[in-house]
Amino acid sequence: MGLQIKAIEAAQQIQDILREVKTAYKKSDREVKYYDHECADIIHALEFIELDAETACALCQQLRDNRKRRREAKNERERLQPLYEVSEGHPYLIYEFERAKWRTERIECIQKHRMYTPRIRTDLQQAFDRVNCRD
Hints:
single chain; mainly alpha
């Protein structure tokens, strides 16, 4: 029969993904800013402080490590940006999926308690009642 989608689970997964995208994007953005400020501190230390060769070499290694970590955070932010922009462009999207999930739950509840009443063949009513009691 192919892929079966459970509507309530799908709505919840979409909500979770949207929240995770937003959280991860903001985390990456904070990391990029942090590494930018750390880089400025290291460069200013190299510029203004008299350093022996060993300390200067250690700061250069720290600068190199900083730039690698910044690049990783920036790449992650860039990968998430298209999804983040969709989410931000539709600020109520998470709530719309919450509403859709609630409506789906309501529909499932109604379907679960649905009972059939024959219109013409009333002689079948007892059989339908037995089926409804089993469900």
